[in-house]
Design a protein that fits this description.
Globin-like; STAS domain-containing protein; alpha/beta
């Protein structure tokens, strides 16, 4: 916390000046808050959050009184930081637009500074005081916005995780055979998810063959290709053979140009060919295909 405050050039002398300002501002803080909501009332956000809920407006006003009280006490500790993060969490929860939040910060700053200038006869270092109050207000807003950003990142990560869950369905399709059809963009994070789910599913089902269908993948870079090869090797360590199906001419050419070593990985051009190989591997091929010659991998 001290490192961040140092970046905002907030030192003990600034906090002392903020406390001095509080001695003259806090007695008028109700007037400041009423002025703020008079300004907010002309904006759409007021109608959205307060126009039909007077009880909410009263609660928020009382919370702002406490907010300004702790602001001008200027005791920047863990409790102070937690209270600002709580504000950010609430704003994130109700999806308060950032533009109205920053506009409100600017409006509050203008109001506080104007009031301080009218009290210059009661403050010894008016310009230094205004500068210190402004720095702490910026720091206050920074903590709130950081919490909003953190909350939004969590939502995005949760959404991405849910999408991965839906987009990586390792499914048993026959006794001893698993299938995973990949569609869309494949990156390193997704291949790690594929590795984890595939190995867990193999352990759960004791599968002997894993068919990885990449016909729905449009492009592949070296890192992803190497990760897929690692997946096949990991499955082999668990006694499960991997067959990669749907290798298009474009991907085949890319793998050659990138110099990816596929080693003894079995590949096929179509999913049907992979199924035939898989069924023969688990002993069902003769029953279904008779004495047909297996498709070469």
């Amino acid at each position: 916390m001290n490192d961040v405050m140092h970046k905002f050039r907030i030192g003990p002398e600034d906090l002392a000046l903020v406390r001095a300002a509080g001695s003259v501002i806090l007695p008028e803080i109700d007037d400041h808050i009423e002025e703020f909501y008079h300004w907010l009332a002309v904006h759409d956000e007021y109608q959205t959050f307060f126009s039909h809920n007077e009880g909410r407006l009263a609660r928020v006003k009382s919370m702002q009184v406490l907010h300004w009280k702790t602001f001008f006490e200027a005791q920047i500790d863990a409790e102070w930081m937690a209270s600002r993060r709580h504000v950010g969490a609430v704003h994130a929860h109700i999806n308060l637009p950032n533009d109205i939040y920053f506009a409100g910060v600017c409006r509050s700053s203008e109001s506080i500074i104007r009031r301080l200038r009218h009290m210059d006869d009661r403050l010894e270092q008016i310009e230094a005081t205004i500068d210190s109050v402004g720095k702490l207000m910026f720091f206050d807003a920074f903590v709130v916005i950081e919490e909003i950003a953190r909350s939004q990142r969590e939502k995005i990560e949760a959404g991405s995780k849910a999408l991965l869950e839906m987009s990586t369905p390792v499914t048993p399709i026959w006794e001893g055979i698993l299938l995973l059809p990949l569609v869309g963009v494949i990156d390193s994070e997704r291949t790690q998810d594929i590795m984890t789910k595939t190995l867990n599913k193999i352990a759960e089902t004791r599968a002997r063959v894993f068919v990885l269908d990449i016909s729905g993948v449009g492009a592949m870079d070296t890192a992803v290709a190497n990760q897929l090869i690692k997946i096949t090797r990991a499955t082999q360590l668990m006694g499960c053979e991997t067959i990669i199906s749907g290798v298009s001419p474009t991907i085949a050419r890319t793998l050659v140009e990138l110099g990816v070593n596929v080693g003894d990985v079995r590949t096929t051009a179509t999913l049907r060919d992979s199924f035939e190989l898989a069924l023969r591997s688990v002993g069902a091929g003769r029953e279904l295909f008779g004495s047909e010659r297996p498709v070469a991998g």
